[in-house]
């Protein structure tokens, strides 16, 4: 059963963290969209309140596609301290499989949410979760998922092979996908995700970012790394004194897992 912390509680804690020098705060919930259900509070209201406090960077996860509201999208787009990244688990790109998973949205509804997000925030980075080889998944249904990955253009995806969990409805389903088929599908999905990530990263070359420096490079003491607002790892020249600082940069090159940048100031 979901329970929501009182907003005043969260704001007090955030204010204390802000005064202690914290630069980034993560709001975590199984489904943050449900925050405040049955009360006068809501997740968009909480985000706006945290933004008004002046928290330098605000992130959150996870957001269920079925109830990602226009109000939440507007709060993200109009609150300057909210990072331009959203983890939006799709699980499958096929309507029959989504229904069998009891996801309560369709492929078309999911893509409509993506279109609204990109219209409001053209530079937003999207990540997702995907399961392959759900019981009964056909080759054609799996290919729907591949096409959705290409259409959305994810920055990254967490990918999994379905595994039977006793006590769940799916565990009792017939047509469990053979292991050799599920492994082959996962490899094809990983290749599609990698291609999507490469395209997304290449599009960032030449653009400016704000990077929260997190650590010295383990390979080169003259390099530091951190996360941009899209939650992509960025490396740049720096020293230990940069750790914990938010640094303006310009992206100069891209790899699958990281971006390379130079300071703009």
SS elements, strand count: 10
Lateral arrangement of strands in the main beta sheet: 6-7-8-10-9
The end-to-end span amounts to 49 Å
Please identify the top-level CATH class of the largest domain.
Alpha Beta
Strand portion: 15-25%
Number of helices: 7
Biggest sheet overview: 5 strands, mixed, barrel
Instruction: Tell me the number of structural domains.
Output: 2
Helix content: 25-40%
What CATH architecture label of the largest domain applies? Alpha-Beta Horseshoe
The CATH topology annotation of the largest domain reads as: pyruvate-formate lyase- activating enzyme
Helical/strand content category: alpha/beta
Which regions have little confidence, pLDDT < 50, spanning 5+ residues? Answer: none
Mean pLDDT over the residues: 95
What's the SSE blueprint?
Layout (H helix, E strand, L loop, with lengths): L6 H13 L4 E5 L14 H11 L3 E5 L8 H9 L6 E3 L7 H6 L6 H14 L4 E8 L6 H14 L3 E6 L17 H24 L5 E9 L6 E5 L5 E5 L8 E9 L3 E6 L2
Parallel strand pairs: 1-2, 3-4, 4-5, 8-10
Antiparallel strand pairs: 6-7, 6-9, 7-8, 9-10
Helix pairs in contact: 1-2, 2-3, 6-7
């Amino acid at each position: 059963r979901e329970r929501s912390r009182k907003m005043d509680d969260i704001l007090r804690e955030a204010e204390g963290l802000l005064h202690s020098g914290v630069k980034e705060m993560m709001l975590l919930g199984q489904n943050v969209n449900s925050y405040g259900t049955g009360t006068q509070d809501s997740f968009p209201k909480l985000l706006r309140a945290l933004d008004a406090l002046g928290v330098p960077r605000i992130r959150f996860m996870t957001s269920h596609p079925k109830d990602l509201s226009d109000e939440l999208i507007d709060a993200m787009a109009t609150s300057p301290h909210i990072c331009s990244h959203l983890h939006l688990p799709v699980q499958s790109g096929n309507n029959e499989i989504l229904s069998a998973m009891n996801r309560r949205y369709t492929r078309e509804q999911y893509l409509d949410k993506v279109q609204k997000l990109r219209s409001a925030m053209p530079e937003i980075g999207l990540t997702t979760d995907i399961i392959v080889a759900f019981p009964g998944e056909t080759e054609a249904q799996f290919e729907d998922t591949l096409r959705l990955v290409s259409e959305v253009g994810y920055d990254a995806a967490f990918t999994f092979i379905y595994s039977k969990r006793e006590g769940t409805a799916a565990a009792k389903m017939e047509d469990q996908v053979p292991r050799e088929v599920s492994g082959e599908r996962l490899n094809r999905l990983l290749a599609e995700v990698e291609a999507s990530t490469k395209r997304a990263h290449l599009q960032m070359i030449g653009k400016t970012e704000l990077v929260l420096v997190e650590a010295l490079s383990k390979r080169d003491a003259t390099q530091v790394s951190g996360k941009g607002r899209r939650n992509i790892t960025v490396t740049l020249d720096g020293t230990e004194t940069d750790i914990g600082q938010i640094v303006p940069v310009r992206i100069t090159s891209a790899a699958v897992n990281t971006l390379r940048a130079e300071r703009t100031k």
